[in-house]
Amino acid sequence: MSFVHLHLHTQYSLLDGANKIKELLPRVAQAGMPACAITDHGNMFGAVQFSQEAARQGVQPIIGCEMYVAPQSRFEKAGRIDDYEAGGNYHLILLAMNREGYRHLCQLVTAGFREGFHYKPRVDKEILRELNGGLLALSGCLRGEVAHSLMTGQPEKARSAAEELARIFDGRFYVEIQDNHLEAQEKVNRELVALAGELGLPLVGTNDCHYLKPEDAAAHEVLLCIQTGKTFSDERRWKFGTDQLYVKNPAEMEAAFADVPGAVANTVDVARRCDFALKQNLQFPVYQVPPGETLDGMLERTARQGLDERLNALRTLDWSPEREKPYDDRLAFELGIIRSMGFAGYFLIVADFINWAKNQGIPVGPGRGSAAGSVVAWALRITDLDPIAHGLLFERFLNPERRSMPDIDVDFCFVRRDEVIRYVREKYGADRVAQIITFGTLKGKAAIKDVGRVLDFTFAETDRIAKLYPEPKQGKDFPLAKALEMEPRLAAHAGALADQPDVGLGAARAQVARRDEAVAAVVAGAAQHHHAQRERRPVAPLHRLGDARARALHERLAAGVPALDRGAIQLAHLGGGEEQHGQRALKSTGISTRNRTRSPAGG
């Protein structure tokens, strides 16, 4: 008998999950598990990376989310700031069975951040009744409504909740039991099994995996302390009270549920029912061209007109027509490549918002990166560098033998960048424009400092150890294991913590995603989400960053990778830049994002 983990948290359950996706899925594959679900708290940040790595490992990915369900309405701002686990809400596992389920999951996650956010991103049963198609639900952990009601001595409430969820998810609701060695869980399990039998509901066994191996439990507790600002010595700190929330193999799960074998078999049945895979099919936003004209035709006409204007500035007394031939030949060559790759609309859109900014008096940089080698970009005034005069190659920017999205770096004035975002939103549709987030991680020195605080080390002690950590090489931090090999004194400090190795520097192993920030804007060819008109099909969930108007996508969801089933163009990378002429430059990237500088999430 095999087994599938259906309740599992990765590093994208920020400062709670400690499963690194690149380490998790090889372990799943080695254990012979045919599939695995990702169910991070309230978000889908890891969906793309999880799906890609699962495909590499030959494991079926199941896209899901552990939702926070408000006891009443998601619009009621009721909850508890001291309830780190649920914020006064219930947990509910949702898994996408098909494309409809994925889209509904995107809408639910978006609604949780945009409509129900109060300590946690929350949904309610009203919206679950509306957007449950294609979704399969598990009743959740001890913080699920059914289990929590039983744990608090309210069996009738538990029955009512189970019946209601079974009606909402007709034929798609499973009662979840766990074997985590918690006394409360063992008592509730017996009642859940009985309740499921009375109501004719199927059981499913899970392990609520938060870390990879049992020895990672102590490091995970440190991670929770970092999240909550507590120290390890604080008896009131939030802790799980068990070391069993690791990725168990099928044999361990079968042994755990030996008395209810159907709970194990049902995990495989659930995996079979979840037949959805993220696929790539790029579609650019619609650039409106005059009647009777095509995108390719308009690009060529605009580019040739722009090139003529550029050359006019060079046509002095010593200029000759022969000197224009390299420009004409290069323009024709580039236009042919752009047409063959289907990127005419991309160039027209980028030129549109850049030239709009220039016409509004918003400072725009001259261009840098590989796009500076394009005569078309120069002719459209996307860049201001003459690639022929400077001997720059177009092939570094676009190459038909290496098909990838264009990457145009542009600097905008930081002070007025919101005007550019507003223009793009108004022109291409507010439901097609969002900002992109990326994540910082617990790097070596930062991890040591955080762990030192959690372990009640003095500032001087922690600082002395952190200074031993090797400096990054070419901006890339060394992993802890490599750092210990490189610096014997650091290894000696780690050895001195032999009485608590997993709690000490071992906690830095987690080095998981810990915070998010707005770094870019994306314009999609389809609605990223929609609320007022549910018939619109979302392609990715949105996340709330600070201001209620800010909408954000994880960078992997926006970079033209398989998560976007209808594609997207990233138009402006909005990370901080250098001080230029008293104003802050604003980095803007075409498709890929690598900047990690914090930037306010506006617009």
Quick rundown:
With 603 residues, this protein is an alpha/beta fold. Helices cover 36% and strands 14% of the residues.
Task: Report what the structure shows.
By secondary structure, this protein is of the alpha/beta class. Among the domains are: 21-212 and 247-273, Metal-dependent hydrolases (TIM Barrel); 295-398, no CATH class; 441-509, Arc Repressor Mutant, subunit A (Orthogonal Bundle), CATH 1.10.10.1600. Helix content is 36%, strand content 14%. The chain contains 20 helices and 14 strands. It has helices spanning 21-30, 47-57, 99-114, 125-130, 145-151, 155-168, 183-199, 217-228, 250-256, 261-273, 295-312, 325-341, 344-359, 375-379, 417-428, 444-454, 459-466, 480-486, 488-496, 555-558, and strands spanning 35-38, 60-69, 90-96, 122-123, 135-138, 173-178, 203-206, 410-413, 433-441, 513-524, 552-554, 568-573, 575-580, 583-588. The strands form three sheets. Strands 1, 2, 3, 4, 5, 6 and 7 form a seven-stranded mixed sheet that branches. Helix 7 (183-199) links the parallel strand 6 (173-178) and strand 7. Helix 1 packs parallel to helix 2, helix 13 (344-359) packs across helix 15 (417-428) and helix 16 packs antiparallel against helix 17 (459-466). The longest helix is centred in the middle third of the chain and has 18 residues, at 295-312. The radius of gyration is 27 Å and the shape is globular. Residues 498-515, 530-535, 547-551 and 558-603 have low confidence and may be disordered.
